[in-house]
Amino acid sequence: MLDIRKAAVIGSGVMGGAIAAHLANAGLVVTLLDIVPAQLLDAEAKKGLTLQDRVVRNRIVLQAKEKMQNPKSMQLYTKTNLERVTFGNLDDDLELLRQADWVVEAVVENLPIKKELFIKIAPYLKPNVILTSNTSGISVNAMSEVLPEELKPNFLITHFFNPPRHMRLLELIPSRHTAGGLLEYVTEFCEEKLGKGVVLAKDTPGFIANRVGTYALTLTIHKMLEYGLRFEEVDALTGSEIGRPNTGTFRLLDMVGLDTLNHVAPYLKSNVNSDKEKAVLALPDYIGKMLAAGYLGDKCKQGFYKKV
Ligand code: NAD
After folding, report:
1. Ligand 1, pocket-test mutation among 66, 67, 108, 170, most atoms within 8 A of CB
2. Which of 63, 66, 256, 278 is 20 to 30 Å from 85 at the Cα level?
3. What residue's CA is closest to ligand 1, atom 13?
4. 3-state helix, strand, coil in the chain (%, to 5)
């Protein structure tokens, strides 16, 4: 019988950390894992730390912990919900996955990386685990290919929207192998326990929301350039003026992360047929320049806007 009480989230970035917080808010016991950093930071070296020190090995996931604790991020309903979250890394703590009834993958939007991760974690998952991906638009059937046969019926996409605490929409996308009963259970669970409004989508690139939303975002960027507007002017028009306070086009892009846009838009572009759509989904050069300069958005405190 399916009964989610313990969850694990893999990837503690913009979405993973916030999903873990939302699950803790719902009363679940949560493990949050991320990769071990490859290099020491200057500050860590100055303190005499090495790559073997736990605080360094968990550095990425501990940044998510800091964000959860920050009242400004509004991820946790109460500080005590943090007590339900265990933080670890994907080298030392894979055993923790054995306890999880539900494992949510929220790593970088890249099919080979997601596949590699599924291969790595599969031996640690319990037989009746529910395994889901938070991908923005990668094919569920393509990801499912690398799973052991017995895990394929347990896998589907649960696509949360940013920020998960506040965005009600949740897209569910089953693969051709997903067990029907599982889809029903996850729908009910996410609606009743997580407060989501579930929309069932097909396994098409970008599903529903990103198929429309990414196209709208990139079209807006092209129109801004065509009309010689500044991004602040576009935000004034596409934000509060149309009832979306603080989430005009470029404010939203900073929240999403330009690196994530740089994964999502090209993936969609390579999967649509019309040349007109491909042209809209092509990112202008200055996005490449911002990426090269490390202006990824809120996650590094500088995107179109500086985050204070
Ligand atoms: P992010 O860049 O903020 O975080 C990605 C995380 O993946 C990082 O913590 C990173 O350390 C980890 N990672 C990198 N390489 C890895 C590897 N080889 N193995 C394991 N982990 C690795 O990205 P995000 O915005 O949190 O996106 C995560 C997923 O959620 C993506 O699939 C994305 O498309 C999707 N998503 C993003 C948004 C958004 O608004 N940003 C919204 C909905 C869905």
Report:
1. 108
2. 256
3. 107
4. 50, 15, 35
Q: Which residues pair with 51 in a beta bridge?
A: none
Quote the CA–CA distance of 244 and 288 in Å, as a whole number.
27
pTM over 0.80: yes
Could you please state the CATH topology (level 3) that the domain comprising 6-200 is classified under: Rossmann fold (3.40.50)
Judge if the beta carbon of residue 164 lies within 6 A of ligand 1: no
Per the CATH hierarchy, to which homologous superfamily does domain 209-300 belong?
A: N-(1-d-carboxylethyl)-l-norvaline Dehydrogenase; domain 2 (1.10.1040.10)
In degrees, rounded to 5, the angle at the alpha carbon of residue 43 between the alpha carbons of residues 38 and 48 is 85
Q: What are the backbone angles phi and psi of residue 171, rounded to the nearest 5°?
A: -90, 135
Mutate to test the pocket of ligand 1, among 9, 10, 12, 14 (most ligand atoms within 8 A of CB): 14
ipTM over the 0.90 cut-off: yes
CATH 1.10.1040.10 location in the chain: 209-300
Chain centre distance of CA 94: 20
Sheet holding 169-174, edge to edge: 85-89, 29-34, 6-10, 102-105, 130-133, 155-160, 169-174, 197-200
pLDDT in tens, 86-95: 999 999 999 9
Q: Is the peptide bond before 163 cis (omega within 30 degrees of 0)?
A: yes
What mean pLDDT is predicted for residues 253-271?
A: 96
Q: Say yes or no: CB of residue 133 within 6 Å of ligand 1.
A: no
